[in-house]
Amino acid sequence: MAEKEKLLSQIPAVHRLREELSRKHPGLPEVFYLRAARRTTEILRQEILEGHLRGLSPEEVFSRAEEILSEEARPHLRPVINATGVVVHTNLGRSPLAEEALEEILSVARRYSNLEYRLSEGRRGSRYEHVRDLLRELTGAEEALVVNNNAAAVLITLNTLARGKEVVVSRGELVEIGGSFRMPEVMAWAGCRLREVGTTNRTHLRDYEEAISEETALLMKVHRSNFAIVGFTKEVSGAELVRLARRHGLFVVEDLGSGCLVDFARYGLRREPTVQEVVASGVDVVTFSGDKLLGGPQAGIIVGRAELVERIRANPLNRALRIDKLTLAGLEATLRLYLDEKIAVERIPTLKMILMTPEEVKRRARRLTRLLQKALPERARFSVVPTVGRTGGGALPLADLPSFAVAVEVEGLSPEELHERLRTGEPPVVGRIEEDRFLLEVRTIFEEEFPLVAKALKRVVEGAGA
Ligand SMILES: *Cc1c(COP(=O)(O)O)cnc(C)c1O
Fold first, then answer.
1. CB 326 within 8 A of CB 179
2. Phi (first) and psi of residue 385, to 5 degrees
3. Residue 59 lies in domain
4. Which residue positions does N6-(pyridoxal phosphate)lysine occur at (predicted)?
């Protein structure tokens, strides 16, 4: 008891600790020093009372305080190491951007720009002009518009072209994307009525045809982003729908979800229809995301017939859904890379990770293993194991990406405990547990993050021994 009293009396005063932190690490808001000093003394107090602390050196106390200060001062939204193997991971921010996109964002963010100003004429311009020609060239569409995200693109397209009328959709395509984006509800918010046709597994052209009436505004196709219907199935292609729509003077809208500009089949992956193909098939308006397979910033891209896209642009909702200048800068730079596919697959991280060959993934897994073994020769075991990766983000939903991961076992820690400690460390590492093993999937870990993973693991292992 007397020993605890003595230790408690050695805890420095909050104001002294605060002053010392502020002197050693100047430039932060005052509240951070105060909070860090308070938390440090509280933690020390508790550890002493619980009998966890036997001695208290001023140096140790101060380094604990510095650690707590760095936690206080660090942003809430911050980088994470994605060791899940899911390339387009919505919870982890979807697509990391290409260097070219980052540079454009920085230069536009730092200073003023010609966002809505035509320099040649010295008068007001439109923010959409910066990506319009690029999108027309890349997709073959007559006209293009960009909004905040694809959910917004679908909403404004339906609201503009079908408000107060019916939209015919197959029952096999009434998808829920997650984050409460459900096709029937989006239709309701857009002010149109859903006319479901066909059955879950089979929808025929005559089902659409029989549903067409005075009330019909358009026929719609929705990409089954996160599921597949297999077995006894039938769906109507966009081209068939276009022919039917033309006979009745109607439009066809397709929500492509991910919307890729590169034909993945050329690289040995599952075929996904490209935006160019869908546009060429005659579909009047196509919408897709900027941050899924495209590998750019969050955005909703609308391409299609000039007269229809122009009507969508003029919808007052567009002002509420409009795209931000930083996004535009990143999107323009990303789209420019697509002008040469060789450059796109080389420079856009999302494409690069998806197209990484199993051999390359295995080489990286071995490299990471060697690094980890060197950093942690004791109490941890590493092995390279084959796994199956996923593209994620509602893209190539069933496409397996043969992959490799580093399985990590740490003495005295369950896979769950290991994962929790890695997730809550700095930088956080999010991995995955499979068959009671903790896995670091290397496809989605950047090469320059390897040393950080080693450091994070080292801290966890050493902490586990304390
Ligand atoms: C992902 C997705 C959306 C939503 O796109 P966001 O860019 O996330 O808003 C809409 N429709 C489909 C089919 C999708 O896959």
1. no
2. -130, 145
3. 2-73
4. 292
CATH number of residue 385's parent domain: 3.90.1150.180
Distance 115 CA to ligand 1 centre (A): 26
Give the model confidence (pLDDT) of 403-415 as tens digits. Answer: 999 999 999 999 9
Cα dihedral 24, 26, 28, 34, rounded to 10, equals: 50
Q: Which of 255, 272, 287, 323 to mutate to test the pocket of ligand 1 (most atoms within 8 A of CB)?
A: 255
DSSP letter string, 390-418? B--SSSSTT--EEEEEEEEEETT--HHHH
Regarding whether 331 and 358 lie in a shared domain, the answer is no
More confident residue, 371 or 234: 371
Could you report the per-residue pLDDT of 95-107, keeping only the tens digit for each? Answer: 999 999 999 999 9
Pocket test for ligand 1, best of 88, 89, 147, 289 (most atoms within 8 A of CB): 289
Q: How confident is the model at residue 66 (pLDDT cuts 50, 70, 90)?
A: very high
Nearest-CA residue for atom 7 of ligand 1: 150
Same domain flag for 297 and 167: yes
> Do 337 and 446 fall within a single domain?
no
pLDDT tens per residue across span 183-204: 888 999 999 999 999 988 889 9
